[in-house]
């Protein structure tokens, strides 16, 4: 698949609109059931870097949305996206909404401690995202 490496490289493009377009296109590719687990995980890892480090919020949001798309056909481990946790408190509400959904999509009980504080967030839809993300996790709460 030659398109995937090209789009991953475009996440480093000088123009934000090019990085955003690459992130969006990667989201479409991550919906492909034929994508291998390795390809999905490598793409998510690179998108996570964009979601955390890019200076443009549109790029960051597209990257987070694309990561969320990866969970449609793949089970991805929490450790792959756990880098979101230290950044959650700095995210805008729309970015935080996506990030909480991603953490919940891992269905890993250890994500509970990352998500739980956002049940008290001042923005309604962020609180709702936290509740929905927690509902994706197993019933046993970590101690």
Folded structure, characterized:
- The chain has 143 residues and is mostly helical.
- Helices cover 60% and strands 0% of the residues.
- The longest helix is centred in the first third of the chain and has 17 residues, at 37-53.
- It is globular.
Unreliable stretches covering 5 or more consecutive residues: none
What is the helix tally? Answer: 8
End-to-end C-alpha gap: 43 Å
Please state roughly what percent of the residues sit in beta strands, choosing from under 5%, 5-15%, 15-25%, 25-35%, 35-45% or over 45%: under 5%
Chain-averaged pLDDT: 95
Whole-angstrom Rg: 15 Å
Q: What is the helix/strand order?
A: HHHHHHHH
What's the total number of strands?
A: 0
- Structural classification: mainly alpha
The profile of the biggest β sheet is:
none
Q: What's the shape?
A: globular
Determine the fraction of residues in helical runs and give it as a percent range: 55-70%
Task: Compile the SSE list and pairings.
Blueprint: H1 3-10, H2 16-29, H3 37-53, H4 57-70, H5 78-81, H6 93-105, H7 112-115, H8 124-135
Helix pairs in contact: 1-2, 2-4, 3-4, 4-6, 6-8
């Amino acid at each position: 698949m030659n398109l995937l490496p090209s789009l991953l490289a475009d996440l480093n493009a000088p123009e934000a609109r090019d990085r955003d377009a690459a992130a969006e296109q990667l989201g479409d590719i991550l919906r492909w059931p034929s994508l291998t687990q390795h390809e999905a995980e490598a793409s998510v890892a690179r998108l996570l870097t964009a979601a955390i480090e890019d200076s443009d919020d549109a790029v960051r949001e597209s990257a987070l949305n694309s990561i969320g798309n990866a969970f449609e056909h793949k089970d991805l481990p929490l450790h792959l996206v756990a880098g979101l946790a230290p950044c959650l408190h700095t995210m805008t509400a729309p970015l935080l909404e996506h990030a909480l959904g991603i953490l919940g999509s891992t269905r890993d009980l250890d994500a509970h401690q990352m998500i739980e504080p956002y049940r008290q967030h001042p923005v309604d839809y962020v609180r709702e995202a936290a509740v929905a993300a927690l509902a994706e996790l197993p019933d046993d709460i970590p101690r």
